[in-house]
Amino acid sequence: MASNELVKGDRFPPWQAKGRKLRQWMEASKTGERKIRQSSLRLRDLDQASWIICIIPKCLPLRENLLIRRVGGLPTEWNTGEQRPLYKKVSIRSHQDDVETPATEWYGFVGLGMLSISWVFRPQEDFVVVDGQHEPYISEISKAVYENSFPLDTLKYVFVTGLSEDDTKQCLNYYISSDRRDDLFYESWEYTEPQCDALLGTKIGKTVAYLLLGAFGQGVKRVRRIAVISEVGQDWDLRFDIEDVPLEGSHFAAKIPEINSPS
Q: What is the pTM of this model?
């Protein structure tokens, strides 16, 4: 049976089956199902005549600062106007001068150990061939953004703030948050849990999975935990925790310290 087929007892169709497939691709260095092509894209490869790329040191907004405070191990900062920013704001947009072709867009922040995605957009497949070339996928751009500033192996967390993507929101609203009662919602799921597979099977989860697969190949890095944070009346924030895949023959991964739910 193919890994993306429904399994009896799946709690979150159709996302769970899709996420299970991606998890298996990340964990397996050898698979008969598919070999994932690694991405060699670097920001310098983007045609400067067609792409607008802006990278500036900038203190994190409050929302991103609160997210990194919850994980520990990442530098926090408060914009006092006097301190040196520890992070960089990145904005990328394709074919700025072509108003008839929808642009690919990437906006977010990068710092040592973290990549925070605020907004991304890539047109449908019919529109992504520009000057005879396919525009890169969001996962490839995300990989290139981090690699432009830091060694890929140092990436530990991917944040997605103010979630606006419909497929992922549908999964969250339909399955994950139906029993929400508190003003602040915080929950996290390990890679062995069905909720983690379900979120990994959404469009946002797929982007993060392909970021890792494109950056490292199979059997090197995986999503160990996915956390969901939201206050009532605000959009969702997601956090993807990344770890090394255990060596073959090892039954246990090095445990990522559990992050306490905010009070």
A: 0.85
% pLDDT > 70, the chain: 76
Sequence spans of domains, the chain: 22-32+163-238, 43-74+83-157
Distance CA 210, CA 143 (A): 9
Residues of the chain with pLDDT > 90: what percent?
53
| CA atoms within 13 Å, Cβ hemisphere of 53 | 15
Kindly report the number of other CB atoms within 10 A of residue 152's CB atom: 14
C-alpha 225/C-alpha 197 separation (Å) is 10
Residue 193 structure tokens:
């849990």
pLDDT of residue 33: 59
The 8 Å CB, 24+ separation contacts for 145-151 are 145/43, 145/90, 145/92, 145/106, 145/108, 145/110, 145/115, 146/110, 146/115, 147/42, 147/215, 148/42, 148/43, 148/55, 148/110, 149/55, 149/88, 149/110, 150/110, 150/112, 150/113
Q: Quote the CA–CA distance of 80 and 212 in Å, as a whole number.
A: 35
- The 10 Å Cβ neighbour count of residue 37 is 9
Q: pLDDT at residue 26 above 90? A: yes
In the Cβ-directed half-sphere of 144, how many Cα atoms lie within 13 Å?
21
Q: What is the pLDDT of residues 137-171, one digit of tens each?
A: 999 999 999 999 999 999 999 999 999 899 999 99
